[in-house]
């Protein structure tokens, strides 16, 4: 019996009949597995050297599913490297599904978190966003959490590797220093997906499912900024429906670039200098 077949048997109690490799994703491999009892499951295998990644993702999925605001694949089991969940067929986004996604995301955020930076219950403090380490450390508010545990760790790495110069680094630092005056409102910690780019919104069965989360407590505008970063189908409808359920604070659109600093700096370190230019451009959009 192979490794995947063994993992599936332990997690589901049923033997694998067929294993099929799936494409996509940069953090390991994905497989669709047909079981002897007729079920189909999804198996994600992380590469070595990512301690806590599976535990963090499993805890995130369970935490996001808890309020029942949006569909989330059920976690069937996990070990140090493998995560087994229910399998999702692929569908196409529709305007109706996009609007329901926006309303559901608003309800999910409103379910809240213990603190900005808090990990999901049972999740490790040292988590991951894709192939990048990500520290979840509770803080009194978002301006205290975001620069210290999101922006500055990757800003330092970008500078140390020569991807960002001193002048650009100073610009980002000035934005970090000004965060208390940029937040727009003193909102409680939201229950965030944490890596909500369009590839982690899976359209299936006429609905938008949340996959591959990096869940934590944070500012709700962060998830919305991630949706905008690489484009999301029917984004205007998503945002309008969200705003109907959980109205956004004045000036939120002006802060999108501030919330995009972290993922852009992560991409800078992982994939190179083109993202460094985008990070600097995002910093320049911060409200005066």
UniProtKB/TrEMBL annotation:
Entry keyword Protein transport: no
Entry annotated with the keyword Hydrolase: no
Keyword tags: Kinase, Transferase
GO MF annotation, one: kinase activity
Alphabetized Gene3D superfamilies for the sequence: 1.20.1270.240, Phosphorylase Kinase, domain 1, Transferase(Phosphotransferase) domain 1
Family (UniProt): Belongs to the fructosamine kinase family.
Protein name as it appears in the record: Fructosamine-3-kinase
Organism: Saccharopolyspora gloriosae
Organism taxonomic ancestry: Bacteria, Bacillati, Actinomycetota, Actinomycetes, Pseudonocardiales
